[in-house]
Amino acid sequence: MQTSKYTLGLVVLLTAASAQAYPEFQQHIVKSTGRPVNCAMCHMHADGPEGTAPGQIGHLNAAQQAELGRARAAFEPNAKPNNPILNAFGNHIINSIGKKKFLEVRLAPAQLPDLLPKESDLDHDGIPDAIELGQGTHPLLKSDGNPWLLFKANFRNNLSEIMLALAATVVGLWGLGHLLHGFAAAVHVEEEEDTQS
């Protein structure tokens, strides 16, 4: 019984604490990229964790508050946090580097992209999440990314369809050329017959 009281007290303490938004990262992205990013890059709500709207602390039910407490204790990597005020990318950051390293890197927010897994691409747009974070584009929005990198990724992903369309176009033009050549020859034969008669 005492253990459950201790656990409940710890959860209440953790969830009653400040929402702990970390504006250093947002400020760094805006300053270094010039892109107007908001809290929705990592949080469920565009205004951040504090408030009573869906995705904010004041809107959480008891089960979500308990999950928030467990997620806030994910100090080491690979704890698989499911923080209800963070989106998939925010949870991915904490899972990848741990809350302890995340808090350390607040002093040098430019280092965060380098700490993320290089192969991670949550929105499957062909641009790694670390690059999107560094460029201030949203790692969960497939349409938001550096246009040139999106073009290259889409070209690479659709290369077989592009090659088939190109081959069909070449074959179609070759066939059309032969068809027109045949019509011209037929017209020429008809004209010769008319002049001979």
Q: What's the number of extended β-strand segments? A: 0
Q: Fraction of residues in helices?
A: 55-70%
Strand content: under 5%
Order of helices and strands: HHHHHHHH
> What's the number of domains?
2
Structural class of the helices, strands and pairings? mainly alpha
Unreliable residue stretches = 1-19
User: What separation lies between the terminal Cα atoms?
Assistant: 116 Å
Mean pLDDT: 88
The count of helical stretches stands at 8
Instruction: Give me the Rg, rounded.
Output: 29 Å
| Major sheet size, sense and barrel closure | none
Shape: rod-shaped
Notes on the structure:
By secondary structure, the protein is an all-alpha fold. The protein folds into two domains: 2-144, no CATH class; 158-196. Helices cover 58% and strands 0% of the residues. The protein contains eight helices and no strands. 22% of the residues are buried. The model is unreliable at 1-19 (pLDDT under 50).
Write the topology of this structure:
Elements: H1 2-16, H2 23-33, H3 62-72, H4 88-105, H5 112-115, H6 129-135, H7 147-157, H8 159-196
Describe, in short, the structure shown:
The chain is mainly α. It folds into two domains: 2-144, no CATH class; 158-196. Helices cover 58% and strands 0% of the residues.
List keywords for this structure.
197 residues; mainly alpha; 2 domains; 8 helices; 58% helix; 0% strand; rod-shaped; disordered N terminus
